[in-house]
Design brief:
Blueprint lengths: L1 H23 L9 H12 L14 H9 L1 H14 L7 H15 L6 H14 L20 H8 L3 H27 L2 H5 L3 H11 L13 E3 L2 E3 L4 H19 L10 H24 L4 H6 L3 H29 L4 H4 L3 H19 L2 H6 L1 H26 L2 H25 L2 E9 L2 E7 L10 E7 L8 E4 L1 E3 L2 E7 L4 H11 L3 E13 L3 H4 L4 E7 L3 H9 L5 E6 L2 H5 L2 H5 L5 E5 L7 E4 H6 L13 E2 L11 E5 L5 H11 L4 E7 L2 H14 L6 E6 L5
Parallel strand pairs: 10-11, 10-16, 11-12, 12-15, 13-14, 16-17
Antiparallel strand pairs: 1-2, 3-4, 3-9, 4-8, 5-6, 5-9, 7-8, 13-15
GO biological process, one term: copper ion import
Membrane topology: Multi-pass membrane protein
GO molecular function: ferric-chelate reductase activity
Length: about 675
């Protein structure tokens, strides 16, 4: 445990140090040499020189004259120096950067001393532009219209890209404050106030639409989509406002005929600035998950939203330059940077299109593999597009995030290794995977891991909630399509029990357990595949109640080990079987897990088992569909505590119903309420 966490911590610290170092060098820092050269390249390109390019480089059209024709070279370097405010400290940076670019992208390979000499000649032989006929070829070093270029130099395009990152930083800070307030019990007191309850009712708890869907999907048949909840939508709306404001902000470039280029320039930089965010929100090993308290599905929501805006930025950028390149668009495709830019925009569109929910839902393992491959190709294309133009720091930052996320994943996997697990059938379409727990494994209720099954496609992995039972990590898995179906078929052929080598990448999650402990009373709501995590959370509770919805009684008895450790009352609702409602002592229920299945009179029967000191909790079994609204309202009102934490995980319909009930009643309850949603979908 200690060694693994040291490696993870080291990787995370190194990752963010590198990112910070890269972003501190971004082009909004005037005086770096990059902004000066990029600004003057536009101005000098407007001048006409009597020069014929050598054409030995793919980029000769843009770099041969500035790098090899003295009047153009001198004008370029002199402009860069003047626009920096005649800052002599910038000269070494300018010469070094200019030499590197000329050697990489022009037909010339001059040393840095050559350009130092050209700059010296330009300062001595400079002729003002006002004394020249700009419509004719120029044969001496001069300066372009510096007044116009100064506006270009001060343009805020990169600041806009940074501002979007700053917006998400603000969200992270606000969420971190709220998260730690929950973790240390401060919100327990605040949530009882009228203002807090109004925020919960209208912003924090509800679905986007009144009585709408958040955990469920909208749509029909194959075409489905997920909607954000209301608080996510509000954050998305603010991002929309920022994007529109940045698109419409005044363009300070005033060189005649270049407006479309400036639109493309701004949108291109804004697109680049979102790439590190894209990778950041897609990563699993992110300490921001712990800091903010956001679920991984929330991170993926922001990943999708940022991806959509990045594509819109890139599309505007591409359309703008397509308009500007009318007449020589096809010939420009021979330039690597141009062709790669086109390819990057196309790949971004394909990535967004194939990420629609019905693709992810039906073919997740193939979607994920294709998505990663396309993303790598996209980064490669953007890399080759920008290595000529600049702003590489955004890509370096994105690659750092991606690399260290993968590094920590590999560390986790190597630490766990491939171990022999035992897989058994424990219920109808339900199997249990057990594997010895490593000593370093840090576990809390709600923990999940990504399980790799040896012999299946090597990259394929799926997230499952895991619990710890008798020193073993256990995952209860409902059989669905894909890998679980293939394993189930082999399991049935092996008399419902077999061994299989697995690797678990984790642990992840488990952050809600310490928050729930701060509440004097708790209501646990479990259903379907969400039962294990809620049951394990209930084992830590001393006050409260567990309400459990299951299709059949055999599904309940599959979790006997967890039930044994629960000391609070349990209400079980069986929805697809009929029998008499009964009340058990826990010990009796576990020893006789099959109630009378013939009786359907619906009466409550008390079983006269003698209570023992260590086994006094009761289990009520009812054969009907529960009225979730009535149950939650009654339990909260009946609680003697001044604060109640509600934690739930179950099928999507159940989760949306729970969210609606809490939203509708939170202002009616005269006690502090908090809701912990453990359901995740992406």
């Amino acid at each position: 445990m200690f060694v693994d966490m040291r490696l993870v911590a080291f990787a995370l610290i190194l990752q963010f140090n590198l990112i910070a170092a890269e972003l501190l060098g971004t082009t909004f820092r005037r005086g770096s040499g990059i902004s000066e050269l990029n600004t003057c390249r536009v101005g000098v390109a407007e001048l006409t020189f009597d020069y014929k390019m050598l054409g030995k480089s793919s980029y000769s059209k843009y770099w041969d004259a500035p790098c090899g024709y003295p009047p153009s070279t001198g004008s370029f370097l002199l402009c860069s120096y003047v626009i920096s405010g005649n800052d002599s400290s910038i000269q070494p940076k300018l010469f070094k950067l200019f030499t590197e670019r000329c050697n990489d992208y022009s037909s010339y390979d001059y040393p840095i001393s050559y350009y130092e000499e050209q700059f010296k000649n330009a300062t001595q032989n400079y002729v003002p532009l006002s004394q020249l006929n700009a419509s004719l070829p120029i044969y001496s070093a001069t300066l372009p219209n510096m007044k116009l270029l100064q506006k270009s130099y001060m343009d805020a395009s990169t600041w806009f890209a940074v501002a979007v990152c700053g917006y998400f930083l603000l969200l992270i800070i606000i969420s971190a404050v709220y998260n730690f307030s929950r973790r240390y019990g401060f919100t327990k007191r605040m949530n009882g106030s009228k203002v807090s309850k109004l925020f919960q009712k209208y912003l924090i708890f509800p679905t986007l639409l009144p009585n709408g869907k958040f955990s469920q999907t909208y749509g029909y048949s194959f075409f489905t989509m997920l909607f954000p909840n209301r608080i996510q939508f509000v954050t998305d709306l603010f991002l929309f406002g920022l994007q529109v404001a940045f698109y419409c902000a005044p363009y300070k470039y005033t060189i005649k005929g270049y407006w479309v280029v400036y639109v493309g320039y701004r949108s291109g930089i804004m697109s680049l600035g979102k790439i590190p965010l894209l990778v950041l929100f897609a990563g699993r090993n992110n300490f921001l998950l712990w800091i903010t308290g956001w679920s991984y599905s929330t991170f993926l929501h922001f990943h999708k939203v940022v991806a959509a805006w990045m594509f819109i930025d890139a599309l505007i950028h591409s359309v703008a330059y397509t308009i500007d390149y009318v007449g020589y668009y096809v010939s420009s495709l021979h330039y690597t940077y141009f062709a790669c830019g086109v390819a990057a925009t196309v790949l971004a569109g394909v990535l967004c299109l194939h990420s629609l929910h019905f693709f992810r839902r039906g073919f997740y393992e193939y979607f994920l593999a294709i998505h990663v491959v396309l993303a790598i190709c996209f980064i490669a294309m953007v890399w080759h597009h920008c290595n000529v133009l600049g702003w590489m720091e955004w890509l370096v930052a994105a690659c750092c995030v991606w690399f260290f996320d993968r590094l920590v994943r590999v560390i986790r996997m190597f630490a766990f290794g491939y171990q022999t697990s035992t897989i058994t059938v424990v219920g109808d379409q339900l199997m249990k995977v057990e594997v010895p727990k490593p000593d370093w494994w840090s576990h809390a209720p709600g923990t999940y891991g990504f399980i790799y099954f040896a012999g299946i496609i090597f990259w394929e992995n799926h997230p499952f909630t895991v619990v710890v039972e008798n020193g073993k990590i256990c995952a209860y898995i409902r059989v669905k399509m894909g890998v679980t179906s293939r394993i189930w078929n082999k399991l049935v052929k092996n008399n419902n029990r077999m061994n299989w080598r697995i690797c678990i990448e984790g642990p992840y999650g488990g952050a809600l357990a310490p928050m729930l402990k701060k509440y004097d009373d708790a209501l646990f709501l479990a259903g379907g595949s969400g039962a294990p995590g809620i049951l394990e959370s209930a084992t830590k509770a001393t006050n409260g109640k567990l309400v459990w919805v299951a299709q059949n009684i055999s599904f309940v008895t599959a979790y006997q080990t967890l039930i044994t450790n629960i000391s609070i009352p349990i209400d079980i609702y069986i929805t697809r079987e009929t029998s008499a409602n009964r009340t058990f002592l826990k010990k009796e229920f576990l020893s006789d897990s099959e109630p009378d299945s013939q009786s359907t009179d619906g009466s409550d029967k008390e079983i006269g088992y003698k209570e023992t000191e260590n086994d006094v909790s009761q289990i009520h079994v009812r054969y009907c569909r529960p009225d979730i609204s009535q149950i939650i309202d009654a339990e909260v009102r009946a609680s003697a505590a001044k604060n109640v934490g509600i934690i739930a995980c179950g099928p999507p319909v159940m989760m949306d119903n729970i969210r609606h009930v809490i939203t509708d009643h939170v202002t009616d309850w005269n006690k502090s309420i908090d809701f912990f949603d453990e359901f995740q979908i992406w």
